[in-house]
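> forwarded from #structure-qc
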């Protein structure tokens, strides 16, 4: 048993010793990347080996094995120790599908195939089928601006790994292909809108590149898109203007169309408006077009140019403007005139029809026979005023407007009559009073037209004038009635339109021995008038009896005068009968006198209410009326009370209406006095109604107060209403507050601030406020004084007290303040005065004591003082004191005591000071309510007012006047 065991041990050891005697390679590496190859692509396999020592079996060997089958014989290889050494390449891979498999490189110490002596490396080879690109569709022809149909794949790519990537590329007009950017990696592709901005067709070739694995990239066959340029319509001509139913000229081509395929079709279109709609014209498919005649309205034409599939383009419009035919005007009217006279103007209707954009032109024509017309030079307006004519003449008017033929109006005739020959009548006669003369007359009318002759007889007492038509005397002869005084006669002949002809004058003499005259021509009813009878024939001893309306006014008297107050009417007849004591003959005469009913005053209107210191509107009127045929004269009167007897005449006011330019400050009554210059008293004067001019009180915009200095962000005190707006028209009074950053300009209305007082919001910078008040009379003075809210940075106790200093003894409502600081408490004390309001606030109002003793005597005023103690939030206190000085000791008088006048108050731009005495040297100072001097000056009084400019802001001010060692103070309100 021991022998057997020993034998086995020896065998195993011997066997181990045999196989353990080799140097196994440390590593074998195939360096060719393990990637698939494409069918037909050869591949060589490279490798390296590393050993740690020399071969113990004679040599190292290598062999290439495919799928466990050696494809190369084992061959020796020299491998230095510890050096990476290249193994001869395997080149048997040709790219056939059969080349696929697992390739193994074995390097061995020896060639016994002892696994303990060799090291292997594997390489797995995959062979892919060659990639085919597939195919895409489809070729297209489009027009510029269109979107071609998307390119689709009708055959997918094959081969390779079965996974493909695509890239699309294109070629423009046969140029080199370039990838489409941004890159398109899809199997299909939609190019989108394609534009061709040229004038010729453009080609774009598209193809798809396919890649799969390591196989070479392949491309499809190209697909071509032909892009025709957009059709550019041609230019046709030309616009025309024709007359209604005319024939327009043929339309021609100015510029041929472009774009598209280069081959064009045409269609002419028509519309009655430039904006369309347009309809095709049948058979109008040529490049040019000749529109038919007979067009009655403005018509628009265009040509539609088409080419291929591109959108049709339209040419410019051709406008055939059709002017309506000119319609003949109507002129009027036939006339008959006298020879060498000017006829009435010939009036015509305006042209109708023709062009709306053309001026109407007229030409008048004349003819002496109704034909063979001649233009009237220079007569080219709608109407015509012929010159004087001496023969029958015909007229017509030729009208033109635009291009349509001119037309002529109707014809009118002006018939010219010969003048009427001056008639001659007979004859002068002398008759006795109370008898009738023989008939007078003459031959019939000579001249004139063929119309019936007409006669008018006129009579006059004086012959040169005063002719009166004799009613009913219309024959060529006339037989006067009984006459008692001289009378003149004449005949007026009329025949047609010529001026009537007046005959010679025939006088019938009736000796009249007496005439009547009066000392007045116009009297009032029952006014006294004296008549005087004058004897013509010098009768030495006549007797006179006077009658009124045939009623005797007394027995005959030798006095030729008659005085009476019994004339009541202008129709009252005054007659005197003269009886001659020498011849026994009697004669009479009569007369009339105008009796005036008196002047009526007319009316004036009307009552007015005006603002203070303004002028009223013009006082309108109806004129006074007289019956004396004279023009009334006027004076105007005014009164402060309207009471009878208080009126006085207004100088220079002598017209029928009255317009005062002077301003009114008090209610005033006004009336007008009218006078008849031809009528005697008392009915020659009359007074109109009285109107009242009511003057509203002087408008005062009121005053506000609220100046203060406060800390930034602190609550501002309310701006109080000191005095409300007053005066003016008391209806519709309202308020509006304004704010400004500087108190000078940049004023802005505060929305909603319409009360008499105003509380500002927290303010962070110095701000100024004023109040506008308004009613019907506020336009001259609408603004109050200005209030300042002064903002400071508050971090410490006050160092001074602001307010009036110096003061006038007895000065009231003086305001003093320190900054209003959050958390501070204030306590005021005063010497020589009384705190009216504001104790325990940062602002107090003080009434200073007046001087003691007689105010008219010289006094010495002690100093005044005011102090404030501030306590901060930490309880610390500080007292600030201001010594208040006074003006120099003088006599102090009020405005009333002094007799000085200061006006107007309130004022806007100026105010006046009127001293009661002349030659007084006066100096003045104007201070605001805080005591700041805003203006000063001096003047010598003259007894009249001294005007002083108010060149300072709106607000309340104190005016201090110093004169003759006397001081007078007054309050002044300045408004905007």
């Amino acid at each position: 048993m021991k022998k057997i065991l020993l034998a086995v041990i020896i065998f195993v050891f011997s066997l181990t010793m045999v196989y353990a005697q080799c140097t196994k390679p440390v590593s074998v590496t195939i360096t060719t990347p393990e990637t698939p190859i494409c069918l037909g692509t050869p591949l060589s396999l490279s490798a390296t080996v590393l050993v740690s020592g020399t071969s113990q079996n004679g040599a190292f060997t290598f062999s290439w094995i495919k799928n466990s089958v050696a494809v190369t014989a084992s061959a020796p290889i020299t491998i230095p120790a510890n050096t990476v050494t290249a193994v001869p390449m395997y080149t048997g891979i040709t790219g056939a599908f059969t080349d696929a498999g697992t390739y193994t490189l074995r390097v061995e110490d020896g060639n016994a195939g002892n696994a303990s002596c060799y090291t292997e490396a594997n390489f797995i080879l995959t062979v892919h089928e060659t990639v085919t690109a597939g195919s895409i569709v489809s070729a297209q022809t489009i027009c510029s601006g269109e979107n071609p149909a998307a390119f689709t794949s009708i055959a997918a790519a094959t081969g390779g790994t079965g996974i493909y990537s695509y890239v699309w590329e294109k070629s423009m007009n046969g140029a080199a292909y370039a990838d489409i950017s941004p890159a398109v990696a899809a199997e299909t592709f939609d190019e989108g809108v394609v534009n061709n901005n040229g004038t010729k067709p453009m080609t774009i070739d598209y193809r798809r590149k396919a890649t799969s694995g390591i196989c070479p990239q392949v491309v499809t066959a190209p697909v071509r898109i032909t892009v025709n340029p957009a059709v550019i319509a041609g230019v046709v001509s030309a616009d025309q203007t024709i007359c209604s139913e005319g024939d327009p000229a043929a339309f021609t081509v100015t510029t041929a169309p472009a774009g598209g395929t280069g081959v064009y079709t045409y269609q002419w279109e028509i519309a009655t408006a430039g904006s369309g709609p347009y309809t095709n014209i049948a058979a109008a498919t040529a490049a040019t077009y000749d529109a038919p005649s007979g067009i009655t309205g403005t018509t628009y034409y265009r040509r539609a140019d088409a080419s291929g599939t591109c959108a049709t383009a339209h040419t410019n419009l051709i406008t055939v403007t059709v002017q309506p035919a000119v319609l003949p005007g109507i002129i009027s009217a036939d006339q008959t005139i006298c020879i060498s006279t000017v006829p009435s103007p010939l009036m015509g209707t305006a042209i109708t029809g023709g062009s709306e954009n053309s001026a109407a032109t007229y030409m008048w024509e004349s003819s002496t026979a109704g034909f063979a017309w001649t233009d009237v030079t220079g007569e080219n307006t709608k109407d015509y005023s012929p010159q004087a004519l001496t023969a029958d003449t015909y007229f017509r008017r030729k009208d033109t407007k635009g291009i349509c033929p001119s037309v002529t109006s109707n014809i009118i005739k002006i018939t010219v009559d010969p003048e009427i020959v001056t008639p001659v009548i007979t004859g002068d006669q002398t008759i006795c009073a109370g008898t009738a003369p023989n008939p007078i007359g003459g031959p019939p009318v000579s001249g004139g037209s063929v119309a019936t002759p007409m006669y008018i007889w006129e009579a006059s007492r004086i012959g040169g004038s005063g002719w009166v038509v004799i009613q009913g005397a219309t024959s060529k002869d006339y037989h006067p009635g009984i006459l008692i005084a001289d009378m003149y006669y004449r005949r007026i002949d009329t025949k047609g339109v010529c001026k009537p002809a007046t005959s010679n004058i025939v006088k019938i003499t009736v000796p009249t021995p007496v005439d009547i005259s009066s000392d007045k021509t116009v009297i009032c009813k029952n006014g006294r008038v004296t008549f005087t009878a004058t004897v013509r024939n010098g009768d030495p001893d006549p007797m006179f009896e006077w009658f009124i309306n045939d009623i005797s006014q007394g027995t005959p008297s030798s006095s030729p005068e008659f005085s009476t107050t019994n004339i009541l009417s202008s129709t009252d007849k005054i007659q005197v009968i003269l009886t001659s004591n020498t011849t026994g003959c009697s004669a009479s005469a009569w007369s009339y006198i105008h009796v005036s009913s008196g002047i009526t005053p007319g009316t004036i209107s009307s009552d007015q209410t005006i603002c203070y210191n303004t002028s009223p509107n013009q006082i309108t009127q109806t004129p006074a009326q007289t019956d004396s045929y004279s023009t009334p004269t006027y004076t105007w009167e005014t009164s402060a009370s309207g009471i009878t007897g208080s009126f006085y005449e207004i100088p220079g006011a002598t017209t029928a209406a009255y317009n005062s330019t002077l301003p009114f400050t008090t209610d005033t009554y006004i009336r007008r006095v009218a006078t008849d210059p031809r009528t005697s008293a008392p009915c020659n004067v009359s007074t109109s109604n009285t109107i009242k001019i009511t003057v509203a009180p002087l408008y005062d915009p009121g005053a506000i107060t609220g100046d203060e200095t406060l800390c930034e962000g602190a609550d501002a005190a309310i701006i109080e209403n000191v005095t409300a707006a007053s005066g003016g028209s008391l209806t519709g009074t309202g308020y509006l507050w304004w704010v400004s950053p500087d108190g000078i300009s940049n004023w802005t209305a505060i929305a909603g601030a319409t009360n008499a007082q105003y509380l500002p919001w927290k303010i962070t910078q110095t701000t100024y406020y004023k109040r506008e008040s308004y009613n019907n009379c506020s336009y001259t003075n609408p603004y109050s004084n200005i209030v300042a809210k002064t903002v400071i940075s508050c971090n410490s106790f006050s160092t001074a007290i602001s307010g009036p200093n110096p003061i006038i003894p007895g000065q009231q409502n003086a305001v003093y303040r320190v900054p209003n600081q959050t958390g501070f408490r204030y306590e005021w004390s005063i010497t020589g005065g009384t705190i009216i309001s504001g104790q325990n606030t940062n602002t107090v109002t003080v009434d200073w004591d007046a001087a003691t003793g007689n105010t008219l005597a010289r006094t010495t005023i002690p100093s005044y003082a005011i102090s404030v103690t501030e306590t901060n939030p930490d309880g610390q206190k500080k007292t600030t004191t201001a010594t208040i000085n006074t003006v120099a000791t003088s006599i102090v008088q009020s405005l009333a005591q002094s007799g000085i006048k200061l006006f107007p108050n309130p004022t806007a731009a100026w105010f006046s000071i009127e001293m009661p005495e002349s030659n007084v040297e006066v100096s003045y100072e104007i201070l605001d309510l805080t005591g700041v001097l805003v203006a000063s000056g001096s003047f010598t009084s003259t007894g009249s007012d001294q005007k002083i400019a108010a060149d300072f802001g709106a607000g309340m001010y104190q005016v201090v006047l110093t004169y003759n060692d006397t001081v007078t103070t007054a309050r002044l309100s300045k408004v905007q």
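QC bot note: The domain at 891-974 is CATH 2.60.40.3080 (Immunoglobulin-like). The radius of gyration is 66 Å.
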